[in-house]
Amino acid sequence: MALDILGIVFASKVKNLLGNNVKTYSLIGIFLGLLLIVFSPLFALGLFLISLFKGSLNSSLTQDYESTINIVEDKRIWIKYTIQNIGSILHQFLLMLLGSLIIMKNGLSIKTLFVITSTPIPTARSIELMKSWNLIATSLIILIIIAYLIYPKIVPLLKKSK
Fold it and tell me: Which UniProt keyword terms apply here (predicted)?
């Protein structure tokens, strides 16, 4: 948890070091953090990297919204946080959907998902569920980041081939 807080504290300094490529480097940093999270011994370091680069990316996006002239000045930050909250809710929904699919694939009920995830002491079954859930969800996020980074490079190539 302390590494997570350190990531937030140093995010602005890292943002300044990244220069004009804050978004690309932040996504790469988040990508590396996600890869580390998959391996349990490196979980804390992965969390630190995600926190560090998420903070840098967040700061950069705030600056982008503040400098956008087609949005009314007093609505800029409000719009940013509204979009961010919608993304967060969508992410939680997709995680619950993923957890439900994993549980149902194993022939269990949705009620079992809530029982397994709400026990104060982890059981072997809940640990197994969380590990598979973590691996699948992290892999999907990594694929989305890769697609986002590659997409601008592929589009011009596709247009040239037509």
Answer: Membrane, Transmembrane, Transmembrane helix
